[in-house]
Amino acid sequence: MAGRKRKESTSRDESTKGTNGNHSDTIEIKLDDDMFDDCPFSIDISCEPAQGPLPPKSGNSAGDAGQKKRRKGKTPKIIHYLQQSLFQPEGSFKTHTSLDTDYRVEPWDEWTAMNGYNSFIINKTKYCVGCYIYIANEDSMTNAQATKDDLISRPLDYWIGRVLEVRATDVENVFARVAWMYRPGDLSHSKDFDGKWVIGRQPYHGVNEVVCSNHMDVVNVSCVANIASVEHWKPKDLPKGQESQSEEENDLLNGIYWRQALDIRTGELSSLPVVCRCKKPANPDRILVECSNDNCDEWLHYECLKHDALMKVYKRLGKDRPHLENGEGSSNGLEWELDFSDDDEATKYSDEEEGDDTELFRKPRKPGPSSKKFKNSKTPYLGLFDASFIRNRSPNVWKIKDLRNGIIGGVRSWKQEVECLCCSRVIT
């Protein structure tokens, strides 16, 4: 994974289907003083559609077939084996239909010669094939076993993987083949469903969100810190903050979860459902507002609604006109147009200035001769107006606050109805 200083491996694969037959039940690990023990194995991933055979059973080395071919004077064929994915993302990829991947551990003969196990035990904690694990690194801690407080306070300091296979020569040499769960900040040169490059955390990524992948590595289990709890968040689940959000759904979002997948063979991210007029994915940690019009029912980003409301206020009042009790005001001839076209620059959810949560999916423009004045401004109202969303009433309203200095007359705060960005009806 990008930026990881672990045992180098050419691995690029993922997901999980357990190990194959003839595996012993459990091996208990004996730890030494070196947390980052060497791992002599790497993984080669085929970029072709998955069509290889299932791996041989424990103790049946694929090298036997190669020896037979060599005795006949033929060059042995390098075989990649199928890893069937347990990750089933709701979205799709453009190139491949699933995360099923052909892989090969090198050196293969040494890998398959080891005994296979269904689980391993470290400090009385049992780790089974298919479970998620925290893997310690230089950023997380300096000893092999994480404390409970460490994992609660900063769980994403650790790498997270899902155990696919366990093999060992003895209690001091135990290895796990894992599929990586990417932290959004570790994404590098990936592509979204529209073919746009994605580097690092995106506005739609939640605080505790990870991205499943078919990127595999073999790790020495001496690096394993603890069991990790990772849930699958599905698009039908409501975002945090909705009134109908259940306690169980809130617990899911308060823990680590995934909803998107990375195909390491192509760098493609699976598609996500889009909402609102901006047609961007929802961030599970942020509020969505549902239009009350039965013919619309669109989910809208809170940040998009706020931006729209403040742009309307700015258009009406500009920098020097007061808001009168009857709601009248003048725009001084300013005519702002909200542009919802795809714009590589308009990718942030929140403005970094003053911690404002203003949506930046829209690009304001002022046509005409004096357009130069606001040519590069996406949020001209910053520092002039602010808005708070009042939900527990019908209809919902914005409480607008005038932050400008030196305004003579008018009122400094007022309420304004919330309008749907798609159907323009008032949201009740």
Automatic annotation (TrEMBL):
BAH domain segment(s): 125-273
Gene3D superfamilies noted in UniProt: 2.30.30.490, Zinc/RING finger domain, C3HC4 (zinc finger)
Segments crossing the lipid bilayer: none
PROSITE patterns cross-referenced by the UniProt entry: BAH
Pfam families the record matches: BAH (PF01426)
Signal peptide residues on this chain, from the entry's feature table: none
Protein name, as recorded: BAH domain-containing protein
Native source species: [Torrubiella] hemipterigena
